[in-house]
Amino acid sequence: MFSIRFVLGICLRKRWVLLLKSPCSLSDLGDTGVPGSAAGTETCLDEPNLPVPKFLHYSCGTVTGMHSLFFGGFENNLILLPVAKILGFGHYIESVNTKSGYYRIRPRADREPFLAFCDMSDGGGWTVIQRRSNGKENFNRKWDDYKLGFGEFQGKNDEYWLGNDHIHDLLTRGENSLKIDLMDWHGERRYAIYENFQLDNYRLWFGTYSGNAGDALSGGSNFEDQWSASHRGMQFTTSDKDHDRFLAGNCASENKGGWWFNRCHAANLNGRYYRRGKYSGSHDDGMVWSTWHGMWYSLKYSAMKIRAPFFVDSESGDGENSQGR
Ligand SMILES: [Ca+2]
Question: Domain Fibrinogen C-terminal, which positions (predicted)?
């Protein structure tokens, strides 16, 4: 007959062996308190002896792990913060406080981790899926590049597209918000937030808009514009895969980048990068957010970022935490 003490003893011993064998030791925790959190660090991620992908970044500002007999014990003293979401039996996801920067994230345990810029402003937890800031990266690319992702993942201003597959994986567990930060060539900034951002087999869905850049994804203010330019429910189109509603041609070829084109658009943040605001040409192919500067103004900066709803802006909240202070 096994006594409780015997079972605990086995588990404890096993745990200690894992700790000793694992590179995720105390000394690796670093200033973020999360092993392997520095950009490019392989620590923990390729450890074959760990039976559970513990302490991996699930998405920006989160880690996943397994509940254990010792939850609340010495593990808790290392890094565990209040549990944010239970994923299923034994599994949890939790938020962690980290600095903005590049992290290896792994939204799906059965796929390889990948690099993304984590923006920890506005309450944290933003995974940047697109960024334009200097025109160095070519966004006029084909289906496979948009599917897998492209660009540079090192500098603070590096330009990239995270990849439709990676974005899809990040969106698979429940609701996410999309925030779009924009800047024009005078340095003025605007933003748009969409609740319930989803990609259904690359098809774009989104909910309520808020912000001060205007709701360009819905196609503009009048019904005629919305019919031809709303991006809601549109499939992704590239120059080599035409899924748009423009029968006479390919919107991605005309507008120089992959996007959820209709016939064709009211916003295209993957368009051509013009080095001054106003531009002209045979097509409105600039980096466009029409509800702010119109179709013939190409923006200087854009960042598209997503996060799960359990992050809360530092400036907003339900008021519970501030009572009596
Ligand atoms: Ca077409």
Answer: 74-310
DSSP string covering 170-222: HTSSS--EEEEEEE-TTS-EEEEEESS-EEETTEEE---EEESS--GGGT-SS
Q: What is the reported pTM?
A: 0.77
**What are the CA-CA distances from residue 317 to residues 62, 195, 307, 311, 321 (Å)?**
20, 16, 16, 10, 8
pLDDT at residue 83 greater than cutoff 60: no
Q: Which amino acid is at 202?
A: Y
- Rounded Cα distance between 86 and 93, Å, is 6
N- to C-terminal Cα separation, the chain: 55
Q: Mind listing the pLDDT tens digit for each residue in 268-315?
A: 999 999 999 999 999 999 999 999 999 999 999 999 999 987 777 655
- Alpha carbon distance 28, 33 (integer Å): 8
Residues by chain with Cβ below 5 Å of ion ligand 1:
242, 244, 246
The CA 200 to ligand 1 mean position distance, Å, reads 20
- Give me ligand 1 centre to Cα 161, in Å: 23
Q: Is 301 helix (H, G, I), strand (E, B) or coil?
A: strand
